[in-house]
Amino acid sequence: MQEEGRDAARLLRRRLFTPKLVLQCLGLALYRLNPVAVMRNPVMFVVWTAAVVVTILAVYEWIFPTPVPEGHLSETFFAFSLAVWLWIIIWLGNFSEALAEERGRAQATALRGTRSEILAKRIRSVSEAASPELVLAENLKKGDLLLIEPGDIIPADAEVIEGVAAVDESAVTGESAPVVREPCEGSNLVVGGTRVLSDRLIARVSVDQGDSFLDKMISMVDGSSRRRTPNEVALTILLTSMTVILLLSCSTLVPFSFYATNHGGHGLPVRVITAVAFLVCVIPTTIAGLLSTIGVAGMSRMMKANVIAMSGRAVEASGDVDVLLLDKTGTITVGNREAIAFLPSPGVTVLELAEAAAAASIADETPEGHSIVRLARERYNVKHDVNFYKGAKFFAFSAQTRMSGIDFEGSRIRKGSMDAIAQWLQGMGAAVPPEIAQKSISAARRGSTPLIVSDNDRVLGIVELKDVVKRGIRDRFKRLREMGIRTVMLTGDNKYTAAAIAAEAGVDDFIGDANPEDKLTIIRRLQSEGRLVAMSGDGTNDAPALAMADVAVAMGNGTQAAKEAGNMIDLDSNPTKLLDIIDIGKQMMLTRGAITIFAVSNVIAEYFAIIPAAFSVTYPELEVLNFLHLASPVSAVLSTVIFNALVMFLLIPVAIRGVSTRAASPIRLLRRNVIVFGLGGLAVPFVLIKAIDLALFYMGLY
């Protein structure tokens, strides 16, 4: 069952460059050559207009050919070649955007595949659970009661009202580890399309048809239209302004050339087709064609990380964040307490306590139970398992008894909380010794959780559990610090415990004894200082702070109030995911910046490459600047247009996958982009344009 869920989850990450998807995008890119679709991008619309003009001129040249000297190719061939490459540039821009969008639609298709025709077991009341009515999931209404048994697929989003069960949510979240669902806040919501692995649940349908969490997720990735982010809008305005200025400048080339040749008495005027091609070469077509692709790909990378971004603005903001507010439990620390020490009673050896604690934990399936067995094995070489205790009776941990244990050869070993063991001992006429009670209090003051271990009426000692700092979290915080992001830990623990955890984890600052109101105050103070703040939360008490934060990540298993307040939802319900979200946002911003710098550098280089060669027939003095020694004016124009098409083609994977990121401050990243993409953007055009020109020359075309 878990394999089926994992297979469905893997579909969310596949279908990126499959032949079927590429063919589909090729057709969609052709369809988007229509002017209504192209008009959404002003720069590409100018290129589309130029392609139409050149195509008309090519047809005119074909019908009314211009005489050319013997041994030269006709002007018709040049005009049609130029028209074809201009249409290829527009088509490539459409193809890149279509490819990014279809990846999202492929994810939506995979999600829809998890929603087959499911039969639901509807009951009238909790007392009538023995006689459920089978109905199609699509016929369920909000408020219906459901009986969900082991192996059943949950038919709709619902709220657990009775029972405790392990649920496989891998089909939605991608996580193979099952989660526990029970009737308590934060763990009482189940998602349609997931599967119950053990035990039985009774749940109440919490949404109407079409409003489920999976429906919203599908509509998010399968939306045909996407609102542009503020940075995209600003960059589009800048690119459009540049294009308008260059358009006005290029419109004067033909009349000025006629004036220059008439008054100079030498040279030939600039042809309209050359002026149009020159315009396409010098306007920022590369970044204009890939801008939308970068934004769509950023949203897609969020989905790949099992995060639903409610808007592109949230993804952008995650790239600009400079302060992270992090809860201690579950984010900085493991969240599941782990055994760190055995504290024996007087007269009891540590090995004896470790063996008893491990034996009592064999049937304890909680993370705490596993950690006790692991500590006894790794530190004291206790390797006893179920086979060692043949004929023993095991008692699993339960929320009701709050202890686990084993009956074996006259020994009744129990491990549990202080209150549970005290009550157990009381039934045998015994009590917890004062020294053990004092050790328990001392452990609690250190921020640990004490568990008492007893053998019959004899208390053997204490197992100390502690919520330990996650492995590698210190290095991640160091990486964030190098990127100029400040980390602040929030915890309800006292300031001494908070200081110890903060020092161990390596956060920049901490706030102890924090409550939800404090979070809101801290966010307001930081924002008043001009900082962008990110935080995560899962409870109703986190909702006000989530609504105020610039990047607010709500946990998928959190309350409805938290999800509505956040601008992102983490389907894995992993608070540490906030660090990954920052990386994705940074990568999208870096990708956009890198391609923009590369495109602008290309334009500058193309000025020096094309102007001397293309216009030397009009202004012979420019020939001294033709250091590339291009074969002819028409070869210079066509080589530059082909170069633009090739660059856009080569940058499509970069726009979709993103540039590589590293831990560095924004200034260092900007310097790296300028050096790598700026200088590279200046050098590449000279090399490739010359190579294309030579290829055209040796093929005998020009």
UniProtKB/TrEMBL annotation:
Mg(2+) binds at residues 538, 542. The active site is at 327 (4-aspartylphosphate intermediate). The keyword Nucleotide-binding applies. Its EC number is 7.2.2.6. ATP binds at residues 364, 368, 397-404, 415. It is an enzyme of class 7 (translocase). Keywords: ATP-binding, Cell membrane, Ion transport, Magnesium, Membrane, Metal-binding, Nucleotide-binding, Phosphoprotein, Potassium, Potassium transport, Translocase, Transmembrane, Transmembrane helix, Transport. It is a multi-pass membrane protein. It is found in: Cell membrane; Membrane. SUPFAM superfamilies: Calcium ATPase, transduction domain A (SSF81653), Calcium ATPase, transmembrane domain M (SSF81665), HAD-like (SSF56784). It catalyses: K(+)(out) + ATP + H2O = K(+)(in) + ADP + phosphate + H(+). PROSITE patterns: ATPASE_E1_E2. Gene3D superfamilies: Calcium-transporting ATPase, cytoplasmic domain N, Calcium-transporting ATPase, cytoplasmic transduction domain A, HAD superfamily/HAD-like. Residues 128-221 form the P-type ATPase A domain. Pfam families: E1-E2_ATPase, Hydrolase. The system is composed of three essential subunits: KdpA, KdpB and KdpC. NCBIfam families: ATPase_P-type, kdpB. This is Potassium-transporting ATPase ATP-binding subunit. It comes from Mesosutterella porci. The gene is kdpB.
